[in-house]
Fold this protein.
Amino acid sequence: MNNQNNLFKVLPVFMAFYVMGFPDIVGVATSYVRLEFGLTNAHTHLLTIMAFVWFALLSVPVGIFQDKYSKKRTVNLGIIFIAMGMVTPLISYSFQGMITSFTCMGIGNAIIQVSANPLMQDVSPSGKLSRNLTLSQFVKAIAGMGGPFIATFFAEYFNNWTIVYWVYLTLSIITIIWLQCTPIRETGNSGRAGFSSTIKLLSDRKVLLLVCGTFLMVGFDVGMNTNIPDYLKSFFGVSQEESNRGISLYFAALMTGRFVSALILNKMKSNKMLLYCAFLSILTFASMYRMDSFLGGCISVFSIGLCTAAIFPLIFSAGLQYLPERANELSGLMIMSVCGGGVIPPLMALITDSYGLMTGMLVMGACLLYILYLAIYLIRSNKSNPTQS
């Protein structure tokens, strides 16, 4: 692993993660676009699909591309697509223009997700990749949470929420220039990666388990995000407005957990941290079934967010540290598994329709049990190779 631990090299990579959070504006943008253009539910969901379908379609090809043409160049390509997504509504604020915008942002997001994580590996000191990846998710979350506030500010004071696109466009251009001017010596770019060689990695048991881990963890996260209001309403009889606050509470817990976890990872090995996070996540998830007040339910929601916050970057870093020379292909596979966010919630919905909400939520409990198994497996398998920690 390349030991380039200085702010000059690390900061522009963190800034790339910040830009990665810009497509989260899709949430608030969809609500404005739906009202202003009078869209149906079907048209609204089409916008959302355009933003997220690219993870399944592009992740592996992007991993192959960056193996041949460099990770830094690939990150900048992703930022360029996001910048294009910001420019489009400024040129053509229409339904067709917004479809184009969401598509560009979705493509850019998928590209950066695949390339920025292994690029962080090249600027992180030995043993600090898990910390930096966890901190990078915290940086990304700041952008994701800030978008709705910025858009609302411009809507209220300037009667034009789309000014937020000018802000994001400017920051995107600054990041492209900053990253391009930063010399980074990359590792693991063999130029020999291909689709078949990438898929064959799944024949390695550890790789398969790690990819399944990211699949289930993203599914858990999306499942929590979409079911928190229903949980708070059905269990405690609160209003829709009160139950919606649970989502903000959950995201606040994720941000807090990622920052605190990054500090802890300065002293603790990452696989041990994963074990603690998985165990505490199961305990806090079980507490949701025991709470008898709205406050107790909110405490459970916050605790779950706090305990699960670092799990995805911990699993991701375990993969990169296991096969650093195949980081590009591994990153493509693991980001492709983000599509778990589109599989687990519908499965939960099917079970909920038949057996009730709390039974459907047991699917998320099963995801956490798998993460606990994965953490135990990683600790045992790495005893023979202590550098993979």
Residues 1-5 have pLDDT under 50 and may be disordered. The chain is about 80% helix and 0% strand.
